[in-house]
Design goal:
Oligomer: heterodimer
Strand content of chain B: 15-25%
Number of strands of chain A: 15
Helix content of chain A: 25-40%
Distance between the termini of chain B: 56 Å
Largest sheet of chain A: 7 strands, mixed
Number of helices of chain A: 13
Strand order of the largest sheet of chain A: 12-11-7-10-9-8-15
Strand content of chain A: 25-35%
Shape of chain A: globular
Largest sheet of chain B: 7 strands, mixed
Radius of gyration of chain B: 21 Å
Chain lengths: 346, 378
Amino acid sequence: VSGRLGVLLLSGVRHQAGYAAVLAGHPRLRILGLVDEPGVADWMHGANAKLAARLGVPYTCDIDGALARDDVQLVSVCPEPTRHARLAARAARAGKHVLVDKPMALTLAECSALEAAVSHGGGRVTFVHRLFSPSIQKLRSMIDVGEIGLPWAVHVTWLAAGGLGGATVEHDELVVDPALSGGGELANFLSYPVGTIRYLTGLEVVTVHCVARSQTHAAHAARGVEDFAVLNLALERGVMATITVGRLAAGSVTGLGRFAIRLHGSHASAVVEEERPRVVVQRAGRLVERSAQPAGAAAIVGVIHDLVQAIEEDREPLCGLTDGRAIAGVLEAAYASAREHRVVMV
Amino acid sequence: LKPGIGIVGAGAIAEAHMAAYRAVEAPVVAVMSRRLASAQRLARVAGASLATDQLSELLGDPAVEAVDVCTPTDDHAATAVAAARAGKHVHVEKPMALSLDEADGLIEACRAAGVKLMVGQTARYHAVSRALRAVIVAGEVGRPFHLELVWDHATFWPGGWRGWHIDPARSGGHLVHNGVHAFDLVSWLFGDVAVRVYAQARAVAHPALESPDYWHATVEMAGGATALCEIGYVLRSPGGVHRSAWVYGTEGTASHATVDDGVVFGAGGPRSAGLMGELPLVVQLREWVQCLRGDGEPPVSGEEGRLALALALAARRSAEIGEPVDVGPLASLAGSDNKIFSGREADSAGAAGGARGWHSAGGADAAQRADAAREADA
């Protein structure tokens, strides 16, 4: 591949603004336009138009036309979660490489449709994940060199703090209205910890036990979706894992949330608190703590860089269809377990 | 008034109790062990006038007002019941018994004899546990809805294959022997009873261990809160300890990690030293002795000890069958409501209004929560 890859933004409803900043800053990419379906809500059109204006690119509602452009090689799909897989499939079927926001898909059926589209189009697909976070990369390297030995238990905590009311979630409905979100914070966040556990262990999840509750946020309670969940997983080879995932009240913890990993291996255990390495500033009696490791930013830069390299090297990106399907399977099992108070096979 | 204490057992725990009684100036007047030499050794250190290998002799000593049962768990109920029937107040090490039938028998024996019964749930007396509970009761984190409790330790099986701790028939296994620590903390911190538990366990030190030495469990409370507990003998560095506790509330979090408790830089590398706070056992036995001196109720009742045991047994069952287990029927003696913990909160809640929503309905039903939120807004 020579020259810069043309990027089309397919919907700017959710984190697209943040992703676009990284895409725009990448030396091998240039953003050509933003497109969305004509029938979306007015506020979505408004958000799309605003983002396009900020980026200095046109905003249209002609998806077929945009996907037909020869100068578009990569599509960044970032609508509300219930449109992720369908729009990603549409771009993939047109032969484009695809970056899709997390979760790649909410159901296994969506995964199948996306796989068929990719098979037809021949492009590469990745989705937003946190595996390029420095701590996860270092932990993986410790496993790879044998320092940890054989991992036999992994615990991942993924808890955002606040974010509602426009802070980081553009509209609360995007994470609490099942028609848009596909569920509550399980649907929104489970992709991250499940991806982390699979990446560190190299093992698939076999069974899921899940307790999901609406605990903190009135917005979730009003829609009957969970803002907090605890999962116990059985992985292949008898390896165990737990996940604590959800959204805490704003300001509950230092930084953006609590993102922690504990891993037990045959030869060592490791504890990671991503927000724990921090700089403490005290001034006139006022204490300010800042994270010394903005892991999220590093992760998304890594995801996009990896996709560009995968395209250029004609290889699979670090996270692709297989991973997205595995995660969707765990998500489906988690919701079933939470509903039925039983252990569910993936 | 200094109540005379009779200690049954002369092992490491008995020694620790003896030292704690000395710290709180409560006289140990008698020691009984099946190994007379051990009883004599401990009695000599304690300054006790009686050392015996016969329980009846200790129970017949009028100087003994309270018996502290520090034997292996399979002996707890029988010795404690005998003490109660002899008219002695009873402090029993955790777990209070191996089965709920045994626990019920002990509770009933103490009630019938009119003697006090305290279960040694030492984890409550850690400085951190008390600080976390104070935060919760004061409402500083809003309504607590999740507790994450991690106790990771280096491999620790005293006595090797001879140790009674690794024999499930004697200790109940790791999920019972140590599980009652975590499960008591869950109930005590939330002020609530568990309704369901799901546990996973693994034998780490050796595949032939009959009792897994590592487990984690998700606990669902009656009020809708959850807890994720883990206790494992899993750290490879000798003497290694990594404990952490996170209380998540609707308005904030409270957390602690042993890395903040002082660090010892030894030959095996840096490790947490647990230097902060008074020795938990000293605090525990001071409260017990104060209870003996006055008319107050024991700070950890038999019913509370039974509740922790019921949850531990349910967790052990869950790990065996691979499915969540309902705790409610097992906890029936204690009642399915929160009465077991009521009456204690006023002491620690202070005048600040106590914990908002501490015992209120939790998040089990999102629609109910939505209604509550609307009412609050109104």
